[in-house]
């Protein structure tokens, strides 16, 4: 239904409607709306429709390309956290072949998950760079990466609502990985 009967994919429908309708093409204010606000995913479907109509080959190709990019980003993040040995390779392979991810790639409407994941990982990568520049004294450049974090987090949310969780993950990275705060130190932190 998100593709075959979605009026937002048709060329005669104004593209701006994507930002007023839910994922299924129903007006957000309508009582029958699913309320799933995913305009970037719908926009990608519209581009697919403009290039190849309802031929599923193009839709699957875009899903695979997005998944490959997300897997490459996850592998690079794994090498930052696990080192560049066999563990980061194993983490990347598990990410690429995990059934949750392959199911999202195989199903065309799973593109919302794949696109949100890609921008989630980009936001996290930007935040990690922000943290490293913040302590090195390059405050001007660190704010650029922080802005990149916010832009990518917003894009992740516009692919799928759960993209907002990247902000919490970035905060957890800052506290527990970058500043190496131990879990036992958390109660003392709240007392201060």
From TrEMBL:
It comes from Cirrhinus mrigala (Mrigala). The keyword Transcription regulation does not apply. Keywords: Membrane, Transmembrane, Transmembrane helix. PANTHER family: PROTEIN O-MANNOSYL-TRANSFERASE TMTC2. This is Transmembrane and TPR repeat-containing protein 2. The chain crosses the membrane at residues 81-98, 104-128. The keyword Transmembrane helix applies.
């Amino acid at each position: 239904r998100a593709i075959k009967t979605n009026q937002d994919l048709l060329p005669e429908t104004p593209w701006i409607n994507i930002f007023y309708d839910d994922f299924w093409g129903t007006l957000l204010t309508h009582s029958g709306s699913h309320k799933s606000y995913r305009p970037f995913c719908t926009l990608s479907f519209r581009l697919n429709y403009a290039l190849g109509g309802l031929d599923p080959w193009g839709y699957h190709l875009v899903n695979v390309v997005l998944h490959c990019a997300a897997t490459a980003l996850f592998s690079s993040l794994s090498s930052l956290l696990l080192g560049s040995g066999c563990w980061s390779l194993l983490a990347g392979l598990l990410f690429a072949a995990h059934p949750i991810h392959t199911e999202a790639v195989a199903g065309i409407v799973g593109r919302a998950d794949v696109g949100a994941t890609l921008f989630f990982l980009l936001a996290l990568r930007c935040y990690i760079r922000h943290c490293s520049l913040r302590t090195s004294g390059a405050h001007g450049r660190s704010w650029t990466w922080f802005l990149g974090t916010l832009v990518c987090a917003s894009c992740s949310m516009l692919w799928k609502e759960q993209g907002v969780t990247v902000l919490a993950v970035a905060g957890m990275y800052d506290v527990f990985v970058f500043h190496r705060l131990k879990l036992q130190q958390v109660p003392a932190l709240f007392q201060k």
